[in-house]
Design brief:
Thrombin, subunit H, mainly beta, 1 helix, 6-stranded antiparallel β-sheet, about 5% helix
Length: about 90
């Protein structure tokens, strides 16, 4: 079994959130089984708890739901419960 470098491991933990009106994407990262932390502004100005969101990880799209959201402008954080269908929890990178 080969050992991943820190940079490789962190890269595997990055989740992308596509933006609807632009070609850019925001990012977040796994913070626990089934949870991704991102900036609230990545989810858009109208983001709210319970909202469904689309995310991409490992080249595949996945659904998610906003679980917690801080008041902007600071600390500008959002916690998303993701649904990695077909991916066992033990395969997640964190």
């Amino acid at each position: 079994m080969r050992t991943l470098s820190l940079v490789q491991h962190v890269g595997r933990c990055v989740v992308r959130f596509p933006r609807e009106r632009t070609h850019a994407a925001g990012t977040g990262f796994f913070v626990g089984p089934g949870l991704v932390l991102t900036c609230a502004h990545v989810l858009g100005d109208q983001a709210m708890v319970g909202q469904a969101v689309q995310a991409n990880w490992a080249g595949r799209p996945y659904a998610g739901k906003v679980k917690a959201l801080t008041v902007r402008p600071y600390p500008d954080l959002a916690l998303v419960r993701h649904f990695l269908f077909g991916v066992p929890r033990w395969r997640e990178p964190c």
